[in-house]
Amino acid sequence: MKQAIIIIVLSILYAASYAQIENDTIGLDELEIISSANPVEFKQISRTVHIITKDQIDESPAVSLDELLKIYGGVDIRSRGAMGVQSDINLRGGTFDQGLIMINGISLNDPQTGHHNLNQAIDLDDVEKIEIFEGPGTRWFGANSYSGGINIISSKPKNKAISVSLQGGQYGYFGGRIITDYKLGKVNNRTSGSLRRSDGYIRNTDFTIVNLNHSSYYNTKVGVLSVNLGILDKGFGANGFYTPKYPNQYEHIRTYSTNATWESGSDIKFKANAYWRRNLDRFELFREDNNWYQKQGELYIMEGDTAGYPTPGGLYPYQGHNYHRTDIIGADGVINFNSLLGSTSIGIGLKSESIVSNVLGESMEDTIFIANSDGYYNKSKQRTNTNISFNQHYSRDNFSVSAGISMFHSNDYGTHFSPGIDLGYFITENIKVFASANQAIRLPTFTDLYYQGPTNISNPDLVPEESLSTEVGVKYFENDFNASLSGFYRQGKNVIDWIKYSPEEKWQSANLASLNTYGISVSANKQFAKGILNYAGVKYTWLTSEKNNNELISLYALDFLRHNFNFFISHDIVRNFSASWTATIQDRNGSYIDYSTGLETSYSTVALLNLKLIYQVRRIEFSISGSNLLNRSYYDIGNIQQPGLWIIGGVKVDILGSK
Question: What are the CA-CA distances from residue 211 to residues 59, 194, 314 (Å)?
Answer without folding.
Answer: 21, 5, 44
